[in-house]
Design goal:
The structure is a single chain. This protein is of the alpha/beta class. It has a single domain, classed as Periplasmic binding protein-like II (D-Maltodextrin-Binding Protein, domain 2, 3-Layer(aba) Sandwich). It is 48% helix and 14% strand. The chain is built from 5 helices and 5 strands. The chain has a 3-stranded parallel beta sheet. The longest helix has 19 residues. The N and C termini lie far apart (30 Å).
């Protein structure tokens, strides 16, 4: 349980930090949209091992999926998962297709400009 709480805290901290790196990102607008729609749309990979994968029932499962569900529960909204390719997620050209992306990546200057 303590490990799960630590994972959630780290994930939320990373999400907030990544939003602050982009002049285009505005957490207030995203949060307002999520609360108005009562749905948090989250991009995850479907083949990222223990982080996010399709289980035997063809449902998304893994650490990133559980953290995203915890964030949605905290906000009191439903959750919807989308599974674009990694190239689309890391390109930063989301176009409002999802509210948040869950995943691990190494920070680089190029990524800081996109996110």
């Amino acid at each position: 349980m303590n490990n799960h709480v630590t994972t959630v805290v780290v994930a939320v901290s990373m999400a907030v930090a990544s939003m602050s790196l982009s002049a285009k990102a505005c957490a207030g607008e995203v949060l307002d949209r999520v609360l108005a729609a009562q749905t948090l749309t989250v991009a995850v990979g479907s083949d990222w091992g223990a982080l996010s994968h399709l289980n035997d029932q063809h449902e998304l499962d893994g650490d990133d999926v559980e953290v995203a569900k915890g964030i949605a529960d905290y906000l009191g909204v439903k959750i919807k998962f989308v599974t674009p390719g990694w190239d689309i997620i890391q390109a930063g050209q989301w176009g409002g297709r999802w509210d948040m992306a869950m995943g691990q990546m190494t920070p680089t200057n190029d990524r800081a400009k996109k996110f």
